[in-house]
Design brief:
The protein is built from 6 helices and 15 strands. The chain is an alpha+beta fold. It is rod-shaped and about 185 Å long.
Length: about 260
């Protein structure tokens, strides 16, 4: 309500005017207080001046783990443990048996024909140390008695004794054979080295006389040795290519017996 109007009313109406003036002043005070509060609320605060925004740090790209996996170190294959056949060669069938066989140099002291046979000689052979044995040998078609008498030979001395044409045979003479034609076979006994004596033991080159010979070798054990008895290396008697020797030298065959010939 305008002040001037209030004053006019006061003059006209007296006490009513005073009351109305008080009411107008109270209303004015109320209006002035509201305006001051609005001004205060809308005034900017000095302490609220915004700080300049900090420049953002450049983003460091993270490695793309999924797209670029770190490769695992290559695994080094660990070789499997070697078997016995790789660390040490598997022994051939004849090898564990050769040490059991007893082959000696022997001298033929007598030669006789077996009456009821066209193939056999009955021999007496001196195996050394007073050990004289009877041997039946199928050499009659290939060698004369004169070619055998007093000759040094090689004899297997621990085979099981056998009877041939009713005659006891206590050893086996070793001989090589070669075919010269369809019906022509050349047979020669093994030749011990010069200076040999009856009883000299036969062993493999590079080795020594066996101390493990048995009293009687099994026939199947001896067959593994007989299967690899050959003439080789320029007329030498060998077991699987290893020369047979005595303490005096190598056991040989005549030049007519070619390498590869069998020994029986």
């Amino acid at each position: 309500v305008p002040v001037r109007q209030c004053l006019n009313i006061m003059n006209n109406n007296g006490s009513k005017a005073v009351a109305l003036l008080d009411k107008a002043l109270a209303l004015l005070d109320s209006m002035l207080g509201t305006t001051a509060a609005d001004c205060t609320a809308n005034a900017p605060l000095a302490a609220s001046v915004p700080k300049p925004a900090a420049a953002p740090s450049p983003a460091v790209p993270k490695p793309d783990v999924a797209s670029a996996p770190v490769p695992k170190p290559a695994s080094v294959p660990v070789p499997a443990p070697a078997t016995a056949a790789a660390v040490t060669d598997e022994p051939k069938p004849w090898q564990p048996n050769f040490g059991k066989v007893l082959i000696k140099v022997a001298r033929v002291v007598s030669v006789e024909e077996v009456e009821n046979s066209t193939k056999l000689y009955r021999l007496k052979v001196d195996c050394g140390g007073g050990d004289v044995r009877q041997v039946c040998a199928g050499l009659r078609q290939f060698l004369t008695p004169e070619q055998l008498q007093d000759v040094l030979v090689c004899a297997v001395c621990n085979l099981k004794p056998a009877k041939l044409a009713g005659n006891l045979s206590e050893a086996m003479l070793l001989a090589a054979e070669v075919e010269k034609g369809p019906e022509d076979i050349l047979v020669c006994t093994l030749i011990p080295p010069s200076g040999s004596e009856p009883g000299d033991q036969v062993f493999l080159e590079g080795g020594a006389p066996s101390t493990e010979t048995v009293k009687q070798i099994k026939s199947d054990h001896f067959r593994t040795i007989a299967a690899v008895l050959r003439v080789a290396d320029g007329g030498k008697a060998t077991v699987d290519g290893i020369p047979l020797v005595t303490a005096r030298g190598t056991i040989t065959l005549p030049a007519e017996i070619k390498d590869g010939s069998t020994i029986r």
